[in-house]
Backbone:
């Protein structure tokens, strides 16, 4: 589903964000992308939804060379990728319902589809009863759930989350991560960039660790720090 | 027709439009001023053009013939006039008819019965297809055998029209500058709206709205500003026409005030819409590419 080959990305100021990255993520995988702030996690996600273009290397998403994509095709790519951010990026003057519907309406969806899809995703994230509320009337966890609903309303194959729990307390964090897992079980590829060690170590999913723009390790059922998990792997 | 979709779009345009009302007011005002100037200019120009053409059509070259000219010579002269492609018509006016015409023209101001003999020579009255040819045609005719004198008033009129043309060009250039200013002000207004809505735009881009779709509400906003401005200008112009033209018409009776108002209205509305469309198009386009 996602494939990076020899990808290098340099910021305009000359620092190297990503250095010769090779990474493959299969359909319906759940992957944590971990590392300190500024190690290139967000940059890697940006390459996938074509917010950034690599200096060299190939970026493939769902069989499409994203790095070679023409400007006119970017919109089509992004309908296939949902993105969730730490700061939710909800429109404050629109209700939850309107925020979610907006993502469909601006792609020119028919109102019939809006009426069908919006309740579906609101139900999925458990916000049906708060659909008429404005974002600032909700808790952080609820706002993030609304943002996830918006990311999912176009039925994307991939969900990218950039520090989705960065602003949340532990119980809300657990809720959001469990929601992402449920979404993953329905067949959506989920890629979560985080530096929340507790979450990563508890989930025991694939962990790709970035450091200084390079992949330090890539483990199935891994820990935030290789071999330094809260419950070290007992090799059998 | 998907009514929900239309409603959403109109809602977006409306919220754009009301978001910076003060700036919209400026934009509409500038459009209105520009269109009033343009409208006045076009009105005056069309009136002058009709007036000028009317005069020019009446311009004749008077070709006075020698008194001792024979009939054969006169016929030969008529034939060579008829051959000239630049000449529209050549009418022979015998001296008796010339006197009658003069009598009719001068009326009671001049008592022709005082004349003991007809002082007029036989003449041709020549009209030319293209007014610009009048001097050349006159020069050719002067050289013909049997022609005593050639006379025409076109020279003065063409000079006047040339002057009017130059003034018209200068006016058009100034209006061009004004239109440019208007475009810049609308573009700035739209840029403010774009800035106010940068979060929405970022989200639209994120969820895969096409640039065309993102552009549309802003372009609609630009067109609305342009058309409202033009409409305000048209009201001003209509009032001005009702107030001023009748007074002018009574003083300047010889000037025909016939302007195709419907066409002018259409043109001015179109100019307003076009200025709004183009300036907003470029304004948003620059943002989306950045």
Residues:
């Amino acid at each position: 589903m996602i494939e990076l080959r020899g990808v290098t990305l340099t910021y305009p100021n000359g620092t190297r964000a990503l250095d010769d990255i090779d990474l493959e993520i299969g359909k319906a995988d759940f992957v944590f992308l971990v590392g300190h702030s500024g190690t290139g996690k967000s940059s890697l996600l940006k390459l996938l939804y074509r917010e950034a273009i690599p200096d060299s290397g190939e970026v493939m998403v769902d069989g499409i060379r994203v790095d070679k994509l023409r400007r006119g095709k970017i919109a089509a790519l992004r309908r296939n990728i949902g993105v969730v951010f730490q700061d939710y990026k909800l429109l404050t003057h629109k209700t939850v319902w309107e925020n979610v519907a907006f993502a469909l309406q601006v792609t020119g969806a028919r109102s019939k589809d809006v009426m069908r899809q919006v309740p579906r995703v609101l139900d999925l994230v458990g916000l049906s009863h708060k659909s008429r509320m404005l974002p600032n009337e909700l808790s952080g966890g609820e706002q993030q759930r609304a943002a996830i609903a918006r990311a999912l309303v176009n039925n994307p194959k991939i969900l990218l989350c950039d520090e989705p729990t960065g602003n949340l307390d532990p119980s809300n964090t657990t809720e959001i991560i469990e929601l992402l897992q449920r979404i993953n079980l329905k067949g959506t590829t989920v890629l979560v960039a985080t530096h929340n060690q507790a979450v990563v170590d508890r989930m025991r999913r694939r962990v790709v660790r970035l450091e200084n723009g390079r992949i330090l390790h890539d483990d199935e059922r891994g820990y935030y720090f290789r071999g330094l998990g809260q419950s070290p792997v007992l090799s059998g | 027709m998907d009514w929900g979709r239309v409603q959403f779009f109109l809602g977006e345009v409306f919220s754009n439009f009301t978001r910076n009302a003060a700036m919209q007011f400026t934009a509409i005002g500038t459009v209105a001023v520009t269109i009033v100037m343009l409208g006045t200019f076009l009105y005056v120009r069309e009136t002058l053009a009709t007036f000028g053409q009317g005069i020019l059509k009446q311009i004749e070259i008077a070709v006075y013939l020698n008194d001792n000219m024979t009939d054969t010579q006169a016929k030969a002269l008529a034939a060579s006039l008829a051959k000239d492609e630049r000449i529209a018509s050549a009418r022979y006016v015998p001296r008796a008819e010339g006197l009658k015409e003069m009598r009719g023209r001068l009326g009671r101001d001049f008592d022709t019965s005082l004349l003991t003999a007809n002082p007029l020579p036989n003449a041709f009255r020549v009209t030319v297809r293209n007014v610009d040819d009048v001097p050349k045609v006159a020069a050719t005719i002067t050289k013909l055998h049997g022609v005593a004198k050639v006379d025409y008033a076109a020279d003065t009129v063409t000079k006047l029209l040339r002057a009017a043309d130059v003034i018209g060009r200068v006016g058009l250039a100034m209006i061009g500058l004004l239109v440019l200013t208007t475009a810049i002000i609308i573009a700035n207004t739209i840029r403010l709206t774009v800035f106010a809505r940068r979060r929405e735009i970022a989200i639209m881009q994120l969820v895969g709205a096409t640039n065309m779709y993102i552009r549309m509400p802003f372009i609609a906003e630009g067109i609305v500003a342009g058309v409202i401005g033009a409409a305000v200008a048209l009201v001003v112009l209509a009032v001005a026409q009702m107030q001023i033209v009748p007074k002018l018409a009574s003083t300047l009776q010889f000037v025909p005030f016939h302007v195709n108002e419907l066409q002018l209205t259409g043109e001015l509305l179109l100019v307003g819409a076009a200025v709004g469309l183009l300036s907003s198009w470029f304004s948003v386009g620059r943002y989306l590419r950045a």
Summary: Chain B has a mean pLDDT of 81. The first helix of chain B runs from residue 3 to 19. Chain B has two domains: 3-55+158-289, 60-152.
